[in-house]
Amino acid sequence: MTNPKQNAQRPARTEIDAVFVRIAQAMASLGVSPLPRNYALFYEALSGRNPDLARELSALGPSPDAAKIDELGIRHNLASHATLSADKVQAQAVKLLGDVSVAMREATNRKTGFVRQLQDFALRLENDPVVAMSDFADATQAIRDQAAALLRDEASFSGRLTETVAQLSSMEGDIDALRAAATRDPSTGLPNRTAFSARLSALFLDAPPPTALVLVSLNGLRGVGERYGVDALEKALKKLAPIFRKSIKKNDFVGRIGLDELAFLFSDVSAANAEAIVSRIRASIEAIDIPLPERSFTPERLSLSAGIAMTDAASGEADLFSQAELALHAVKASGHPGQLVFSAAVGARSPRLYSPHAA
């Protein structure tokens, strides 16, 4: 028999946990393959983030076809389906260009035949100047008909080529949308972890100016999601996103790389400059009221912890990220919001996570 006292001591399942349980149960009951892109699609549908997707997914009924599920992900521009979308666009472009190539080849063959017909007629006139009038009339009529047919073909091909160019231009827009979906966080509109990884990888290709990597943790945001649901978390992120955008200049970068984590790259700054920038961001974040359901008069306040690492003290991208991560861990371990610039002393306190060459 279940012990009520034990049940009371058991922690309540959070809404976020419940969403993941619902995803697993829904996919299992419908017989959907446990592919990462399917998990991402079901999360979008069942978390309440995309009601239209939820309705369309439900309309597929029991045992939905895998191709139909993929079509939903492509139509809603989910980042998880960006590769499938790109493959589809590429296949369409290849087909269009192939069709145009065939049409051009056929048009060229017809033109070549027409030129040969003219050459044959000219040769007959050279060899036999006194061609019978009936032969001359027949030949000229055939040439005239062939010329008219070529003009019609040219007009048709021109129209087809114009249509193909328009379709390819539309595909270019689709590709831009795919690129945005694959590299943007849907909640904030900021670049996502994929975009951050690409930017970080490019950082050491040339000799970069002194650049600060800042890893940020939004303290309290995860708790908002756990206590009040995904919708409250999403609204909080949307309210905070403009602050992050305004904190960077032209050559800087900010992206959301986790549930409550962001990454900044500040170009051409010193460690002291980076600390000053982070201090301003912290003050802005901590001054924001986060509205919560059924708590109109007692909004939530978040705080910010940050780890800072400088490119001139790192041997490469992995080393830079590790340093910033260790500095962030040190701040969070202190139990107080704040920021910390990585140093050899910070690395020495984390020997199992940090390689000596990075000091």
UniProtKB/TrEMBL annotation:
Gene3D superfamilies: 3.30.70.270. Residues 209-344 form the GGDEF domain. It catalyses: 2 GTP = 3',3'-c-di-GMP + 2 diphosphate. InterPro entries: Diguanylate_Cyclase, GGDEF_dom, Nucleotide_cyclase, Rev_trsase/Diguanyl_cyclase. Its EC number is 2.7.7.65. SMART domains: GGDEF. NCBIfam families: GGDEF (TIGR00254). This is diguanylate cyclase. The lineage of its organism: Bacteria, Pseudomonadati, Pseudomonadota, Alphaproteobacteria, Hyphomicrobiales.
